[in-house]
Design goal:
This protein has 481 residues and is mainly alpha-helical. The protein contains 23 helices and no strands. The chain has helices spanning 2-22, 43-48, 50-53, 58-63, 68-94, 99-136, 141-144, 150-172, 186-206, 234-241, 243-265, 269-278, 283-294, 301-312, 317-324, 341-357, 359-366, 370-378, 383-408, 416-421, 427-430, 433-443, 447-476.
Length: 481
Protein backbone atom coordinates (compact mmCIF):
# COMPACT_ATOMS: atom_id res chain seq x y z
CA UNK A 1 0.00 0.00 0.00
CA UNK A 2 2.78 2.36 0.96
CA UNK A 3 4.68 1.52 -2.22
CA UNK A 4 1.58 2.26 -4.30
CA UNK A 5 1.19 5.65 -2.63
CA UNK A 6 4.82 6.49 -3.30
CA UNK A 7 4.33 5.62 -6.97
CA UNK A 8 1.27 7.90 -7.07
CA UNK A 9 3.19 10.74 -5.44
CA UNK A 10 6.07 10.36 -7.90
CA UNK A 11 3.59 10.27 -10.81
CA UNK A 12 1.86 13.38 -9.46
CA UNK A 13 5.14 15.29 -9.19
CA UNK A 14 6.17 14.30 -12.71
CA UNK A 15 2.81 15.49 -14.06
CA UNK A 16 3.14 18.77 -12.19
CA UNK A 17 6.63 19.37 -13.60
CA UNK A 18 5.36 18.51 -17.09
CA UNK A 19 2.40 20.87 -16.70
CA UNK A 20 4.59 23.77 -15.51
CA UNK A 21 7.23 23.23 -18.21
CA UNK A 22 4.57 23.07 -20.94
CA UNK A 23 3.37 26.57 -20.03
CA UNK A 24 6.46 27.94 -21.79
CA UNK A 25 6.31 25.81 -24.98
CA UNK A 26 4.72 27.69 -27.91
CA UNK A 27 3.97 24.48 -29.82
CA UNK A 28 1.73 23.31 -26.97
CA UNK A 29 -0.11 26.61 -26.50
CA UNK A 30 -3.82 25.68 -26.09
CA UNK A 31 -4.83 29.32 -26.58
CA UNK A 32 -3.77 29.45 -30.24
CA UNK A 33 -7.26 28.80 -31.57
CA UNK A 34 -6.62 30.76 -34.78
CA UNK A 35 -3.84 30.60 -37.36
CA UNK A 36 -3.68 34.39 -37.16
CA UNK A 37 -2.45 34.23 -33.56
CA UNK A 38 1.33 34.39 -33.28
CA UNK A 39 2.67 30.83 -33.33
CA UNK A 40 5.58 31.85 -31.07
CA UNK A 41 3.29 32.60 -28.12
CA UNK A 42 3.26 30.24 -25.16
CA UNK A 43 0.39 29.88 -22.72
CA UNK A 44 2.40 31.88 -20.20
CA UNK A 45 2.82 34.80 -22.62
CA UNK A 46 -0.84 34.60 -23.66
CA UNK A 47 -1.99 34.91 -20.06
CA UNK A 48 0.38 37.75 -19.14
CA UNK A 49 0.38 39.93 -22.26
CA UNK A 50 -2.95 40.59 -23.96
CA UNK A 51 -1.27 42.85 -26.52
CA UNK A 52 0.93 39.98 -27.70
CA UNK A 53 -2.14 37.81 -28.14
CA UNK A 54 -3.89 40.28 -30.47
CA UNK A 55 -0.71 41.60 -32.09
CA UNK A 56 -1.47 39.99 -35.46
CA UNK A 57 -5.24 40.46 -35.26
CA UNK A 58 -5.54 44.23 -35.52
CA UNK A 59 -7.38 44.44 -38.84
CA UNK A 60 -9.47 41.33 -38.16
CA UNK A 61 -10.59 42.68 -34.79
CA UNK A 62 -11.35 46.14 -36.18
CA UNK A 63 -13.54 44.69 -38.93
CA UNK A 64 -15.37 42.54 -36.40
CA UNK A 65 -14.49 39.27 -38.12
CA UNK A 66 -13.21 38.00 -34.79
CA UNK A 67 -15.15 39.17 -31.72
CA UNK A 68 -12.92 40.95 -29.22
CA UNK A 69 -14.87 39.20 -26.46
CA UNK A 70 -13.45 35.87 -27.64
CA UNK A 71 -9.88 37.15 -27.45
CA UNK A 72 -10.43 38.60 -23.99
CA UNK A 73 -11.94 35.28 -22.93
CA UNK A 74 -8.82 33.48 -24.20
CA UNK A 75 -6.57 35.94 -22.36
CA UNK A 76 -8.39 35.74 -19.03
CA UNK A 77 -8.76 31.97 -19.29
CA UNK A 78 -5.01 31.67 -19.86
CA UNK A 79 -4.38 33.93 -16.86
CA UNK A 80 -6.63 31.77 -14.67
CA UNK A 81 -4.78 28.66 -15.83
CA UNK A 82 -1.51 30.30 -14.72
CA UNK A 83 -2.95 30.88 -11.25
CA UNK A 84 -4.04 27.26 -11.30
CA UNK A 85 -0.49 26.25 -12.21
CA UNK A 86 0.83 28.20 -9.22
CA UNK A 87 -1.59 26.33 -6.93
CA UNK A 88 -0.58 23.01 -8.51
CA UNK A 89 3.12 23.81 -8.05
CA UNK A 90 2.52 24.74 -4.39
CA UNK A 91 0.67 21.47 -3.89
CA UNK A 92 3.55 19.56 -5.43
CA UNK A 93 6.03 21.24 -3.08
CA UNK A 94 3.89 20.43 -0.03
CA UNK A 95 3.70 16.78 -1.11
CA UNK A 96 7.31 16.49 0.07
CA UNK A 97 6.32 17.14 3.69
CA UNK A 98 4.54 15.29 6.48
CA UNK A 99 0.92 14.09 6.51
CA UNK A 100 -0.47 17.60 7.21
CA UNK A 101 1.62 19.12 4.40
CA UNK A 102 0.57 16.41 1.95
CA UNK A 103 -3.09 16.87 2.88
CA UNK A 104 -2.97 20.63 2.25
CA UNK A 105 -0.89 20.05 -0.86
CA UNK A 106 -3.48 17.63 -2.21
CA UNK A 107 -6.24 20.22 -1.72
CA UNK A 108 -4.15 22.88 -3.45
CA UNK A 109 -3.39 20.53 -6.36
CA UNK A 110 -7.10 19.72 -6.76
CA UNK A 111 -8.08 23.40 -6.69
CA UNK A 112 -5.33 24.34 -9.13
CA UNK A 113 -6.11 21.50 -11.56
CA UNK A 114 -9.81 22.38 -11.45
CA UNK A 115 -9.00 26.04 -12.20
CA UNK A 116 -6.75 25.00 -15.08
CA UNK A 117 -9.29 22.57 -16.58
CA UNK A 118 -12.14 25.07 -16.23
CA UNK A 119 -10.13 27.87 -17.86
CA UNK A 120 -9.13 25.59 -20.74
CA UNK A 121 -12.80 24.75 -21.32
CA UNK A 122 -13.42 28.49 -21.59
CA UNK A 123 -10.88 28.58 -24.39
CA UNK A 124 -13.04 25.97 -26.13
CA UNK A 125 -16.01 28.33 -25.75
CA UNK A 126 -13.96 31.12 -27.31
CA UNK A 127 -13.15 28.79 -30.19
CA UNK A 128 -16.88 28.21 -30.70
CA UNK A 129 -17.31 31.97 -30.97
CA UNK A 130 -14.67 32.04 -33.70
CA UNK A 131 -16.44 29.22 -35.54
CA UNK A 132 -19.68 31.23 -35.37
CA UNK A 133 -17.86 34.26 -36.78
CA UNK A 134 -16.42 32.17 -39.61
CA UNK A 135 -19.95 30.98 -40.47
CA UNK A 136 -21.26 34.57 -40.29
CA UNK A 137 -18.47 35.88 -42.54
CA UNK A 138 -17.74 32.95 -44.90
CA UNK A 139 -15.67 35.16 -47.23
CA UNK A 140 -13.22 35.84 -44.41
CA UNK A 141 -13.07 32.34 -42.97
CA UNK A 142 -9.48 32.02 -44.23
CA UNK A 143 -8.59 35.15 -42.26
CA UNK A 144 -10.22 33.86 -39.08
CA UNK A 145 -8.61 30.44 -39.68
CA UNK A 146 -10.05 28.57 -36.71
CA UNK A 147 -7.93 25.69 -35.49
CA UNK A 148 -8.07 23.13 -32.67
CA UNK A 149 -4.68 23.22 -30.94
CA UNK A 150 -3.21 19.93 -29.81
CA UNK A 151 -2.14 21.58 -26.57
CA UNK A 152 -5.75 22.01 -25.48
CA UNK A 153 -6.36 18.29 -25.10
CA UNK A 154 -2.86 17.84 -23.70
CA UNK A 155 -3.32 20.39 -20.90
CA UNK A 156 -6.84 19.22 -20.05
CA UNK A 157 -5.66 15.61 -19.84
CA UNK A 158 -2.79 16.51 -17.48
CA UNK A 159 -5.07 18.70 -15.33
CA UNK A 160 -7.62 15.88 -15.04
CA UNK A 161 -4.90 13.37 -14.14
CA UNK A 162 -3.52 15.69 -11.46
CA UNK A 163 -7.03 16.16 -10.03
CA UNK A 164 -7.78 12.41 -9.99
CA UNK A 165 -4.43 11.40 -8.45
CA UNK A 166 -4.68 14.15 -5.81
CA UNK A 167 -8.23 13.01 -4.97
CA UNK A 168 -7.14 9.37 -4.68
CA UNK A 169 -4.25 10.31 -2.40
CA UNK A 170 -6.55 12.40 -0.21
CA UNK A 171 -9.11 9.63 0.12
CA UNK A 172 -6.53 6.96 0.93
CA UNK A 173 -4.51 9.03 3.42
CA UNK A 174 -5.43 9.49 7.09
CA UNK A 175 -6.72 12.88 8.15
CA UNK A 176 -4.05 15.03 9.84
CA UNK A 177 -4.37 15.67 13.56
CA UNK A 178 -5.67 19.06 14.64
CA UNK A 179 -2.50 19.99 16.51
CA UNK A 180 -0.22 18.67 13.76
CA UNK A 181 1.95 21.31 12.11
CA UNK A 182 3.20 21.38 8.56
CA UNK A 183 6.77 20.09 8.50
CA UNK A 184 9.16 19.49 5.61
CA UNK A 185 12.60 17.92 5.88
CA UNK A 186 15.54 20.28 5.59
CA UNK A 187 16.80 18.72 2.36
CA UNK A 188 13.39 19.21 0.75
CA UNK A 189 13.20 22.81 1.98
CA UNK A 190 16.50 23.51 0.25
CA UNK A 191 15.21 21.78 -2.88
CA UNK A 192 12.02 23.89 -2.89
CA UNK A 193 14.10 27.06 -2.47
CA UNK A 194 16.15 25.98 -5.48
CA UNK A 195 13.11 25.29 -7.66
CA UNK A 196 12.44 28.92 -8.79
CA UNK A 197 16.04 29.26 -9.93
CA UNK A 198 15.82 25.89 -11.67
CA UNK A 199 12.69 27.10 -13.47
CA UNK A 200 14.43 30.28 -14.60
CA UNK A 201 17.43 28.20 -15.71
CA UNK A 202 15.13 25.96 -17.73
CA UNK A 203 13.24 28.84 -19.36
CA UNK A 204 16.26 30.97 -20.29
CA UNK A 205 19.00 28.35 -20.81
CA UNK A 206 17.49 25.02 -21.85
CA UNK A 207 14.17 25.96 -23.46
CA UNK A 208 15.91 28.08 -26.17
CA UNK A 209 17.70 24.91 -27.31
CA UNK A 210 14.40 23.99 -28.96
CA UNK A 211 15.26 26.69 -31.50
CA UNK A 212 18.20 24.63 -32.75
CA UNK A 213 15.79 22.92 -35.16
CA UNK A 214 15.87 26.07 -37.32
CA UNK A 215 19.43 25.15 -38.31
CA UNK A 216 18.08 22.28 -40.44
CA UNK A 217 15.43 24.26 -42.37
CA UNK A 218 15.31 27.09 -44.86
CA UNK A 219 13.53 29.29 -42.35
CA UNK A 220 12.61 32.96 -42.52
CA UNK A 221 10.92 34.99 -39.81
CA UNK A 222 7.20 34.25 -39.80
CA UNK A 223 7.44 31.03 -41.83
CA UNK A 224 6.27 27.62 -40.69
CA UNK A 225 8.58 24.63 -40.48
CA UNK A 226 7.64 21.95 -42.99
CA UNK A 227 9.39 19.02 -44.67
CA UNK A 228 9.57 20.80 -48.02
CA UNK A 229 11.86 23.39 -46.38
CA UNK A 230 14.09 20.80 -44.73
CA UNK A 231 17.74 21.39 -45.69
CA UNK A 232 19.56 18.88 -43.53
CA UNK A 233 23.16 19.95 -42.98
CA UNK A 234 23.15 22.50 -45.81
CA UNK A 235 23.76 25.49 -43.53
CA UNK A 236 26.56 23.66 -41.74
CA UNK A 237 28.43 23.10 -44.98
CA UNK A 238 27.56 26.62 -46.20
CA UNK A 239 29.81 28.07 -43.51
CA UNK A 240 32.88 26.56 -45.17
CA UNK A 241 31.82 26.05 -48.79
CA UNK A 242 31.26 29.77 -49.35
CA UNK A 243 34.73 31.42 -49.51
CA UNK A 244 33.46 34.86 -48.49
CA UNK A 245 31.60 33.48 -45.48
CA UNK A 246 34.57 31.32 -44.45
CA UNK A 247 36.93 34.30 -44.68
CA UNK A 248 34.54 36.47 -42.67
CA UNK A 249 34.17 33.82 -39.95
CA UNK A 250 37.96 33.44 -39.78
CA UNK A 251 38.25 37.19 -39.16
CA UNK A 252 35.51 37.05 -36.53
CA UNK A 253 37.15 34.09 -34.79
CA UNK A 254 40.47 35.96 -34.72
CA UNK A 255 38.83 38.90 -32.95
CA UNK A 256 36.91 36.64 -30.59
CA UNK A 257 39.90 34.55 -29.56
CA UNK A 258 42.16 37.60 -29.28
CA UNK A 259 39.81 39.48 -26.93
CA UNK A 260 39.05 36.36 -24.91
CA UNK A 261 42.78 35.60 -24.75
CA UNK A 262 43.50 39.06 -23.37
CA UNK A 263 40.77 38.53 -20.79
CA UNK A 264 42.23 35.17 -19.75
CA UNK A 265 45.78 36.54 -19.55
CA UNK A 266 44.57 39.39 -17.34
CA UNK A 267 42.09 37.31 -15.35
CA UNK A 268 44.21 37.80 -12.23
CA UNK A 269 43.34 41.51 -12.07
CA UNK A 270 40.10 41.10 -10.00
CA UNK A 271 41.93 38.80 -7.58
CA UNK A 272 44.79 41.26 -7.04
CA UNK A 273 42.33 44.13 -6.72
CA UNK A 274 40.43 42.20 -4.04
CA UNK A 275 43.68 41.52 -2.16
CA UNK A 276 44.73 45.17 -2.30
CA UNK A 277 41.23 46.29 -1.29
CA UNK A 278 41.25 44.10 1.79
CA UNK A 279 44.62 45.53 2.76
CA UNK A 280 43.09 49.01 3.15
CA UNK A 281 42.66 49.39 6.88
CA UNK A 282 40.57 52.58 6.87
CA UNK A 283 37.02 51.27 6.55
CA UNK A 284 35.42 54.37 5.01
CA UNK A 285 38.08 54.62 2.30
CA UNK A 286 37.68 50.91 1.60
CA UNK A 287 33.89 51.30 1.29
CA UNK A 288 34.17 54.28 -1.06
CA UNK A 289 36.65 52.46 -3.32
CA UNK A 290 34.47 49.32 -3.42
CA UNK A 291 31.30 51.29 -4.15
CA UNK A 292 32.81 53.32 -6.99
CA UNK A 293 34.39 50.25 -8.59
CA UNK A 294 31.22 48.16 -8.31
CA UNK A 295 28.68 50.72 -9.56
CA UNK A 296 29.90 50.60 -13.23
CA UNK A 297 28.74 46.97 -13.43
CA UNK A 298 25.13 48.16 -13.14
CA UNK A 299 25.50 50.74 -15.91
CA UNK A 300 24.40 49.59 -19.37
CA UNK A 301 26.89 49.64 -22.22
CA UNK A 302 24.83 52.33 -23.92
CA UNK A 303 25.47 54.67 -20.98
CA UNK A 304 29.12 53.62 -20.89
CA UNK A 305 29.43 54.62 -24.53
CA UNK A 306 27.70 57.93 -23.71
CA UNK A 307 30.38 58.56 -21.06
CA UNK A 308 33.10 57.60 -23.55
CA UNK A 309 31.57 59.94 -26.13
CA UNK A 310 31.61 62.86 -23.68
CA UNK A 311 35.28 62.22 -22.95
CA UNK A 312 36.82 61.08 -26.25
CA UNK A 313 34.64 62.53 -29.05
CA UNK A 314 35.62 65.53 -31.17
CA UNK A 315 33.92 67.91 -28.74
CA UNK A 316 34.77 65.79 -25.71
CA UNK A 317 36.79 66.67 -22.63
CA UNK A 318 40.13 65.24 -23.86
CA UNK A 319 39.90 66.85 -27.28
CA UNK A 320 38.99 70.29 -25.91
CA UNK A 321 41.76 70.07 -23.29
CA UNK A 322 44.44 69.25 -25.89
CA UNK A 323 43.22 72.02 -28.19
CA UNK A 324 43.25 74.57 -25.34
CA UNK A 325 46.76 73.50 -24.34
CA UNK A 326 47.95 73.91 -27.93
CA UNK A 327 48.88 70.26 -28.54
CA UNK A 328 46.25 69.88 -31.29
CA UNK A 329 45.20 72.41 -33.89
CA UNK A 330 41.66 71.01 -33.96
CA UNK A 331 39.61 68.41 -32.11
CA UNK A 332 39.99 64.71 -32.85
CA UNK A 333 37.45 61.94 -32.41
CA UNK A 334 39.41 59.29 -30.54
CA UNK A 335 36.44 56.92 -30.58
CA UNK A 336 36.66 56.68 -34.37
CA UNK A 337 40.29 55.61 -34.23
CA UNK A 338 40.59 51.96 -35.26
CA UNK A 339 44.01 51.33 -33.69
CA UNK A 340 44.51 49.24 -30.54
CA UNK A 341 40.85 48.22 -30.56
CA UNK A 342 41.37 45.01 -28.59
CA UNK A 343 43.22 46.81 -25.79
CA UNK A 344 40.58 49.55 -25.65
CA UNK A 345 37.74 47.06 -25.38
CA UNK A 346 39.57 45.18 -22.63
CA UNK A 347 40.17 48.37 -20.64
CA UNK A 348 36.53 49.41 -20.91
CA UNK A 349 35.45 45.95 -19.83
CA UNK A 350 37.95 45.99 -16.96
CA UNK A 351 36.69 49.37 -15.75
CA UNK A 352 33.10 48.18 -15.86
CA UNK A 353 33.53 44.77 -14.25
CA UNK A 354 36.61 44.96 -11.99
CA UNK A 355 34.79 45.76 -8.75
CA UNK A 356 31.99 43.30 -9.37
CA UNK A 357 34.37 40.47 -10.30
CA UNK A 358 36.38 41.10 -7.13
CA UNK A 359 33.40 40.43 -4.84
CA UNK A 360 33.79 36.66 -4.98
CA UNK A 361 37.49 36.97 -4.09
CA UNK A 362 36.64 39.31 -1.20
CA UNK A 363 34.21 36.66 0.07
CA UNK A 364 36.93 34.01 -0.26
CA UNK A 365 39.38 36.19 1.67
CA UNK A 366 36.86 36.65 4.49
CA UNK A 367 36.71 32.85 4.79
CA UNK A 368 40.44 32.40 5.35
CA UNK A 369 41.26 31.16 8.84
CA UNK A 370 42.46 34.17 10.86
CA UNK A 371 44.69 31.93 12.95
CA UNK A 372 47.00 31.66 9.95
CA UNK A 373 47.56 35.42 9.99
CA UNK A 374 48.04 35.41 13.77
CA UNK A 375 50.63 32.63 13.50
CA UNK A 376 52.40 34.53 10.71
CA UNK A 377 52.47 37.67 12.88
CA UNK A 378 54.05 35.72 15.70
CA UNK A 379 56.69 34.44 13.26
CA UNK A 380 57.48 38.05 12.29
CA UNK A 381 55.85 38.15 8.83
CA UNK A 382 54.98 41.59 7.46
CA UNK A 383 51.87 42.50 5.45
CA UNK A 384 53.37 41.63 2.08
CA UNK A 385 54.62 38.27 3.31
CA UNK A 386 51.17 37.45 4.68
CA UNK A 387 49.68 38.48 1.37
CA UNK A 388 51.99 36.30 -0.75
CA UNK A 389 52.18 33.29 1.56
CA UNK A 390 48.64 33.13 2.98
CA UNK A 391 46.10 35.24 1.05
CA UNK A 392 47.13 34.48 -2.52
CA UNK A 393 47.61 30.69 -2.04
CA UNK A 394 44.18 30.55 -0.36
CA UNK A 395 42.62 32.26 -3.39
CA UNK A 396 44.18 29.96 -5.99
CA UNK A 397 41.36 27.33 -5.84
CA UNK A 398 38.73 30.04 -6.41
CA UNK A 399 40.81 31.53 -9.20
CA UNK A 400 41.19 28.14 -10.90
CA UNK A 401 37.45 27.50 -10.84
CA UNK A 402 36.69 30.91 -12.35
CA UNK A 403 39.49 30.49 -14.89
CA UNK A 404 38.06 27.12 -15.97
CA UNK A 405 34.64 28.70 -16.51
CA UNK A 406 36.24 31.61 -18.36
CA UNK A 407 38.05 29.21 -20.69
CA UNK A 408 34.75 27.43 -21.36
CA UNK A 409 33.22 30.76 -22.36
CA UNK A 410 36.11 31.79 -24.60
CA UNK A 411 33.74 32.14 -27.58
CA UNK A 412 31.15 34.14 -25.63
CA UNK A 413 32.36 37.73 -25.46
CA UNK A 414 28.91 39.24 -25.32
CA UNK A 415 27.46 41.59 -27.90
CA UNK A 416 26.37 44.85 -26.24
CA UNK A 417 29.81 46.37 -25.71
CA UNK A 418 30.99 45.77 -29.26
CA UNK A 419 27.68 46.82 -30.81
CA UNK A 420 27.87 50.17 -28.98
CA UNK A 421 31.54 50.88 -29.77
CA UNK A 422 31.52 49.62 -33.36
CA UNK A 423 32.15 52.15 -36.14
CA UNK A 424 33.40 51.96 -39.76
CA UNK A 425 37.01 52.41 -38.63
CA UNK A 426 37.17 49.51 -36.17
CA UNK A 427 34.67 46.98 -37.57
CA UNK A 428 37.41 44.67 -38.82
CA UNK A 429 38.90 44.39 -35.31
CA UNK A 430 35.82 44.64 -33.09
CA UNK A 431 33.38 42.19 -34.69
CA UNK A 432 33.24 39.16 -32.38
CA UNK A 433 31.21 35.97 -32.74
CA UNK A 434 28.17 37.12 -30.74
CA UNK A 435 27.98 40.35 -32.74
CA UNK A 436 28.36 38.38 -35.98
CA UNK A 437 25.46 36.10 -35.00
CA UNK A 438 23.33 39.15 -34.23
CA UNK A 439 24.12 40.73 -37.59
CA UNK A 440 23.42 37.71 -39.77
CA UNK A 441 20.37 36.66 -37.75
CA UNK A 442 18.59 39.93 -37.00
CA UNK A 443 19.95 42.30 -39.63
CA UNK A 444 20.62 39.80 -42.40
CA UNK A 445 17.62 37.54 -41.82
CA UNK A 446 19.74 34.37 -42.07
CA UNK A 447 18.22 32.77 -38.98
CA UNK A 448 19.32 29.20 -39.88
CA UNK A 449 22.94 30.28 -40.37
CA UNK A 450 23.00 32.24 -37.11
CA UNK A 451 21.50 29.21 -35.37
CA UNK A 452 24.26 27.00 -36.77
CA UNK A 453 26.95 29.36 -35.51
CA UNK A 454 25.27 29.50 -32.10
CA UNK A 455 25.06 25.70 -31.96
CA UNK A 456 28.72 25.26 -32.82
CA UNK A 457 29.68 27.89 -30.27
CA UNK A 458 27.74 26.07 -27.53
CA UNK A 459 29.20 22.68 -28.43
CA UNK A 460 32.76 24.04 -28.55
CA UNK A 461 32.22 25.76 -25.18
CA UNK A 462 31.13 22.48 -23.61
CA UNK A 463 34.18 20.74 -25.09
CA UNK A 464 36.47 23.48 -23.76
CA UNK A 465 34.88 23.19 -20.33
CA UNK A 466 35.64 19.47 -20.11
CA UNK A 467 39.14 20.02 -21.50
CA UNK A 468 39.93 22.75 -18.97
CA UNK A 469 38.40 20.65 -16.20
CA UNK A 470 40.60 17.68 -17.18
CA UNK A 471 43.73 19.84 -17.20
CA UNK A 472 42.75 21.23 -13.79
CA UNK A 473 42.37 17.69 -12.42
CA UNK A 474 45.78 16.69 -13.78
CA UNK A 475 47.57 19.76 -12.40
CA UNK A 476 45.64 20.42 -9.17
CA UNK A 477 43.99 17.09 -8.50
CA UNK A 478 40.50 18.58 -8.59
CA UNK A 479 38.21 20.31 -11.06
CA UNK A 480 34.84 22.02 -11.44
CA UNK A 481 33.00 18.87 -12.55
Amino acid sequence: MKTGKNVLFITLRILIILFIASLFLPDLNPARISESINRNLSLFTTGIFYKSLIDGLGRILKRGWIPEQAMKMVHYASLVSLFGAIAIAAGGCLSLGNNKARFNGGILSMIGSFMAAFSLLQILNARKMLIASAEEFPKYADKIAVRLPFGLAFFIAIAVLIFVISLVLLLTSPLPKKDEKIEIEEKYKLFIMFMPFAALLFVFCYLPLWGWRYAFFDYHAGDTLSLDKFKGFYWFTYLFSNPATAKHIALVMRNTLAMSGIGILMSWCPMMFAVLLTEIKTSWIKSIVQIFTTIPNFISWVLVYAVAFCIFSTDGFISNLFVDLGFWAQGKNLLMDGSHTWAKMFLWGLWKGLGWSAIIYISAISGIDQQLYEAATVDGANRFQKMFHITLPSLIPTYCVLLTLQIAGVLSNGMEQYLCFENPQNTAAIEVLDLYVYKIGINGGLIPLSTVVGMLKSLISVALLFMANTISKVIRGQGVI
